[in-house]
């Protein structure tokens, strides 16, 4: 094997949507790729999401106006946001997160995320077709539901931003909403149909299909827990839980909420530090009643949940209920209060059977202070590449991350501007 072939070897740590996407995109450019995770692909944070692929996800939580609403959020927290005491230990992230809720940061973030989401959407479609699972994709958009006119008016700023970006939407009244989704209870005066959106019926199955495509292309998957990484004169080593050492000339850290703690444990020659926060989220599955259907995911803003029509791993129809955000330490024990409240709200809107046993899930989604993922080479660490910090939209931004990273690593012109995501901003 010559020097060029050796230099085109890479190990990707993390087999969620982002890690699998990095592996697939690098493989497509001729890299010899190994993928490492302690779980099978798609079993951690990428398992639990609403399955929505939408340009409307360009709107970060820390947007202009957060300063004014912060006191009421803290004093009277609602279902959209729960803050546990352990989140206060992340005070550096909290302060910087709120500091970025200003017009200048918001404008950079929305433009950057929109480019990454569009690149991801195009890549998803190509990969779904190649993996022969394009039947899992629905081009039916998704719905934002408003209980009354005042709630609809309060969302005017968000709708204006979507319009500025040219995102196709349609405002529905109660009657037109009922015609579109006849099984919904008549509990909403208005809805916004975000048409420039799609969804999948089983996000974990999609990640696994991409991983299968990666294997069929000659990729290698290793199931191991990564304890630390070490810089070497001619590359990088990663150390597993038994102390076994593995060498690679290039290394990609795409371990989601575990990425920054791995870097900190590895004592690298850099002052890089993000102080990430964690937007934790819960989900629960419900069996569908005979004849009761949804044509697309729905987002009830008052109830602060998303209800998505999906297929379980056996192909049966289920509804996935996803909650709002819980700010807490990454490894805090679950608190089902938010999930129970979301179920109560959802049952007032759509008739469902009892919850599917053992379907409760909790994931810690890593969020940077500016709500933009970190994509690029680690400062002062040649050959160490980063791809993490995708908050709660990793499913919508993972494939684009893989494409962008593969272009950067291959020294090619990039499909989108990489500067907003560059690690050197930290």
TL;DR of this structure?
The protein has 426 residues and is α+β, with helices and mostly antiparallel strands.
Describe this structure in words.
Helix content is 31%, strand content 27%. It is an alpha+beta fold and 426 residues long. Strands 4, 6, 7, 8, 15, 16, 17, 18, 19, 20 and 21 form an eleven-stranded mixed β-sheet that branches. It has a six-stranded mixed β-sheet with strand order 10-2-1-14-23-22. The longest helix is centred in the N-terminal third of the chain and has 28 residues, at 103-130.
Topology:
Blueprint: H1 3-7, E1 9-13, H2 17-28, E2 32-37, E3 52-54, H3 66-75, E4 81-83, H4 91-99, H5 103-130, E5 137-138, E6 142-146, H6 149-154, H7 156-164, E7 169-173, H8 174-180, E8 190-194, E9 197-200, H9 203-216, E10 220-223, E11 226-232, E12 235-240, E13 245-248, E14 251-253, H10 259-265, E15 277-288, E16 298-300, E17 305-311, E18 317-323, E19 325-327, H11 337-347, E20 352-355, E21 361-367, E22 374-377, E23 384-388, H12 394-409
Parallel strand pairs: 1-2, 1-14, 2-10, 4-19, 6-16, 14-23
Antiparallel strand pairs: 3-9, 5-9, 6-8, 7-8, 11-12, 12-13, 15-18, 15-19, 15-20, 15-21, 16-17, 17-18, 22-23
Helix pairs in contact: 2-9, 2-12, 5-12
Globally, the shape reads globular
Report the total helices: 12
Helix content: 25-40%
Largest sheet: 11 strands, mixed
The CA-CA distance between the termini, in Å, is 37 Å
Q: Tell me the number of strands.
A: 23
Low-confidence stretches: none
Average pLDDT across residues?
Answer: 94
Structural class: alpha+beta
Compute the gyration radius: what is it? 21 Å
Strand residues, percent:
25-35%
């Amino acid at each position: 094997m010559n020097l060029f072939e050796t230099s085109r070897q890479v190990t990707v740590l993390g087999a969620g949507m982002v890690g699998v996407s990095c592996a697939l995109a690098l493989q497509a450019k001729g890299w010899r790729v190994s993928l490492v995770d302690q779980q099978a692909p798609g079993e951690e944070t990428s398992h639990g999401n609403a399955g929505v692929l939408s340009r409307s996800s360009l709107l970060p939580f820390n947007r202009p106006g957060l300063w004014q609403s912060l006191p009421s959020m803290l004093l009277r927290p609602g279902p959209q946001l729960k803050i546990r005491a352990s989140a206060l230990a992340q005070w550096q992230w909290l302060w910087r997160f709120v500091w970025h809720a200003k017009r200048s940061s918001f404008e950079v973030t929305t433009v950057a995320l929109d480019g990454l989401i569009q690149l991801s959407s195009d890549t998803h479609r190509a990969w779904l077709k190649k993996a022969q699972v394009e039947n899992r994709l629905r081009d039916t958009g998704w719905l934002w539901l408003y209980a009354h006119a005042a709630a609809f008016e309060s969302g005017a700023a968000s709708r204006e931003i979507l319009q500025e970006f040219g995102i196709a939407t349609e405002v529905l009244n109660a009657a037109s909403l009922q015609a579109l989704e006849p099984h919904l209870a008549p509990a909403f005066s208005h809805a916004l149909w975000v048409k420039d959106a799609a969804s999948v019926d089983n996000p974990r199955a999609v990640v696994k299909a991409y991983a299968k495509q990666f294997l069929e292309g000659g990729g290698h998957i290793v199931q191991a827990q990564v304890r630390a990484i070490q810089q070497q004169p001619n590359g990088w080593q990663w150390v597993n839980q038994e102390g076994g050492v593995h060498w690679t000339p290039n290394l990609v850290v795409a371990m989601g909420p575990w990425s920054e703690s791995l870097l900190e444990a590895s004592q690298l020659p850099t002052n890089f530090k993000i102080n990430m926060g964690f937007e934790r989220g819960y989900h629960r599955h419900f069996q569908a009643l005979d004849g009761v259907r949804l044509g697309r995911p729905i987002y009830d803003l008052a109830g602060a949940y998303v209800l998505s029509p999906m297929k379980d791993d056996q192909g049966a129809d289920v509804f996935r209920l996803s909650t709002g955000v819980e700010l807490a330490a990454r490894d805090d024990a679950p608190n089902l209060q938010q999930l129970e409240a979301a179920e109560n709200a959802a049952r007032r809107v759509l008739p469902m059977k009892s919850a599917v046993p053992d379907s409760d899930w909790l994931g810690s989604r890593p969020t940077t202070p500016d709500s933009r993922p970190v994509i690029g080479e680690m400062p002062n660490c040649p050959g160490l590449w980063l791809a993490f910090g995708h908050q709660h939209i990793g499913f919508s931004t993972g494939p684009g991350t893989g494409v962008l990273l593969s272009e950067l690593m291959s020294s090619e012109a990039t499909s989108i501007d990489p500067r907003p995501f560059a690690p050197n901003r930290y």
